[in-house]
Design a protein that fits this description.
Blueprint: E1 3-8, E2 10-12, E3 18-25, E4 32-39, E5 46-52, E6 58-60, E7 68-73, E8 78-83, E9 92-100, E10 116-117, E11 121-125
Parallel strand pairs: 2-11
Antiparallel strand pairs: 1-3, 3-8, 4-5, 4-9, 5-6, 7-8, 9-10, 9-11
């Protein structure tokens, strides 16, 4: 049974940096859109960033453009999210997610189409 194994996150000060990683276990990342959603307390879950395992195309939510960078190592089946210039409003639980049968990423997958979900990583930005 496939799963996504997340690591990283934690506590950072405003303006600081953190990173997340998400590794595919039990399946290979062929033709997947993989990335992260996040959910802050009292708010709806929102797409953060996704990348295609096929053509490397990427998508970023408006609130993280220019600050977050997503990348993929297909040899390791692992996706990374580098988060810089963190703001308190970035505080949330970040969920790794993978949508199968995707070649090009143009936006966040519909949550109903997600094949695998990670358990979530808490990111807290506070002074």
């Amino acid at each position: 049974q496939g799963q996504l194994v997340e690591s990283g996150g934690g506590l950072a000060q405003p303006g600081g940096s953190l990173s997340l990683s998400c590794a595919a276990s039990g399946f290979t990342l062929d033709y997947y859109a993989i990335g992260w959603y996040r959910q802050a307390p009292g708010k709806e879950r929102e797409g953060v960033s996704f990348i295609s395992s096929s053509d490397g195309s990427t998508w970023y939510g408006d609130s993280v453009k220019g600050r977050f960078t997503i990348s993929i190592d297909n040899t390791k089946g692992t996706v990374y999210l580098q988060m810089n210039s963190l703001k308190p409003e970035d505080t949330a639980v970040y969920y790794c997610a993978a949508d199968r049968h995707v070649i090009t990423v143009a936006g966040p997958p519909h949550e109903d189409d997600i094949t695998y979900w990670g358990k979530g990583s808490l990111v807290t930005v506070s002074s």
